[in-house]
Specification:
Radius of gyration: 18 Å
Structural class: alpha/beta
Distance between the termini: 23 Å
Shape: globular
Order of helices and strands: HEHEHEEEEEH
Number of helices: 4
Strand content: 15-25%
Strand order of the largest sheet: 1-3-5-4-2
Number of strands: 7
Largest sheet: 5 strands, mixed
Length: 186
């Protein structure tokens, strides 16, 4: 994994223990049937970086472990910025079989969704106006992730840009460029 200049936090051992206990308790209450769940946190886990690099290094084509769903990356250099620590949350989620998808932000210009070893890993669009210099002038990365959970617990998700017609009554006064935040030359 590349060395980062920033030190980002991660999901700690006591949090993983809490997660495992909750899933086991819910499974027991559900007559041995493991509930399906989704997880949401700010900083991506290292497995998102692993999945993205595997996808990228395979000429942006699916592999045995990685399946592309939607989106793109806009960050430069490292592209995915996780913590340098990994206490095994992804492995525990895979072992327990409950968590079908994990959603995160942090890298404001990424909105890609990849499945890695059976678990969907997805960035949401950014909603901020302060993350990067002049980001308020760019709209291509701003919006939301729509998540639909079906009665059987499966889910689907997709992104919607905030500047599409259906949101015009809310954002009619904003003037933004729909060009990517970074140009091809950067």
């Amino acid at each position: 994994m590349p060395v980062l200049s920033w030190k980002y936090d991660c999901i700690h051992e006591n949090q993983i223990e809490w997660y495992e206990n909750e899933i086991n308790e819910l499974t027991q209450e559900n007559n041995g049937v493991t509930p399906k769940s989704l997880a949401f946190f700010h900083i991506p886990i290292q497995e998102m970086q692993t999945a993205y690099y595997e996808y990228r290094d395979n000429d942006f084509t699916d592999t045995e472990d990685v399946k592309y769903y939607y989106g793109e990356t806009g960050e430069i250099d490292i592209v995915v910025y996780p913590s340098e620590k990994n206490y095994g949350f992804f492995d525990k989620a895979a072992e327990l079989g409950s968590t079908q998808g994990m959603f995160f932000g942090h890298d404001h210009l990424n909105n890609i969704s990849l499945e890695y070893k059976g678990i969907r890993l997805s960035y949401g669009y950014t909603i901020d106006y302060l993350a990067y210099k002049d980001i308020k002038n760019y709209g291509s990365q701003r919006g939301c992730t729509v998540i639909t959970v079906m009665p059987d617990g499966n889910f689907d998700s997709y992104t919607e840009n905030y500047y599409q017609d259906k949101y015009q009554p809310v954002n009619a006064k904003e003037q933004v460029s729909m060009e990517p935040y970074y140009s091809e030359s950067e």
